[in-house]
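Subject: for your reference before the review

Hello V.,

The reviewers asked for a structural picture of the protein, and I figured it would be easier to keep everything in one thread rather than splitting it across files. Below is the amino acid sequence we used in the manuscript, unchanged from the supplementary table.
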Amino acid sequence: MAITNWPIHDRPREKLLQKGAAALSDTELLAIFLRTGITGKSAVDLARELLLHFGNLSNVFAANQTSFCRIPGIGAAKYAQLQAVLEMARRALSEELSTGDAMGSPNAVRNFLRLSLANKPHEVFVGIFLDVQHRAIASEELFSGTLTQASVYPREVVKRALYHNAAAVIFAHNHPSGVAEPSQADKVLTQSLKQALALVDVNVLDHFIVGGGVAWSFAENNLI
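And here is what came back from the structure prediction:
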């Protein structure tokens, strides 16, 4: 049955307008994004099929064009729309970090990092460079590695901090395994970076590990 034939209070778009986006299920939100279905399937049916195929919203967002477009009724246009939505979300969060105290907006930092790192197939190490008021100056992918580790060189990190004239920095890297917990190597690296940057008066405020939809914080666990 077409969504237009549903009772008004059950239609995803009308439900969102009446109750707010938080009241909708993942399937309903994705259906609003898809807008239309195909012959024999509503937008809700297609959304449900996408979620069943990929497992969850995070995996839908992380899908490449080839795998995304394998679902009947889902083409390149919808893939492009999804990537545009994700990039707008990243930019909005980046703007929030650049206009306010990053340490005063921990959720914005977490959401930005999760959108940027959560589903990368290899390990990536990122630095968010901050001014004296802890506003973001730049976010850079500093190093990338294999599925198990990335080689991070403190001297190169110091050079980038000086280049941006940063007063502080927040680090983050992902664990493709999905386990957002620090290894002993992660702890040693964090302390090495902290010591190296202290020599040029740059404070390391936090180090996040992103995995499994979680952004784990060194600062919140008293490890920095």
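For the response letter, the relevant points are probably these. The radius of gyration is 20 Å. The mean pLDDT is 85.

Happy to draft the paragraph if you're swamped.

O.
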